[in-house]
UniProtKB/TrEMBL annotation:
Residues 102-182 form the Guanylate kinase-like domain. GO terms for biological process: signal transduction. It holds the Pfam family Guanylate_kin. Keywords: Membrane. Residues 24-94 form the PDZ domain. This is Membrane-associated guanylate kinase, WW and PDZ domain-containing protein 2-like. It is found in: Membrane.
Amino acid sequence: MSKTSMRKLHWRSRMQDTFVPLIDSSGELGVAVGGGADYGEFPFVTAAPGDGINVGDIILEIGGTPVLGMTLGDVRGVLNSCPHPVRIKTVSPGATLCKDLRLYLSKCFTPGSVDSTLQQVIRENLFLRAVPCTTRPPRAGEIPGTDYNFVSIEEFFSLEESGALLESVALYTVVSFYKTTC
């Protein structure tokens, strides 16, 4: 077996592009979604009419709008606002792209790669709704709860340990002192 065939296929090669029609005159699609950034997950299909979309598939786009990193409410809003039939891009979960949003955001990818670009889209969607936490004191004009959630170091570590944070970064200030002789 060649090295090329032994190499796992990238998740991008498993993407499915499906048009989902209304299931009847009631105006229902028959597609239901779960997950979302508010649950630390990619949005995924929880009910499907078949025909290309499967329960458990990760939803990448709805009607041309990337929904990765959006809250569940925002994903449902995009789904409900699209003209019918709704175009949905999905992919079956795998090792690199599984339901766990935190895990995907913690990985390092080559800059400019599909995965790196996808991480950027996720972060942009996250920042539409998420208010980041910081342990630094508020600066002039910053509004707690709007610009940042200002927390103590202990609160931050508690949030991190409980899994309440999608991402965390520790920044350290390095101070150097030089000994001078006179």
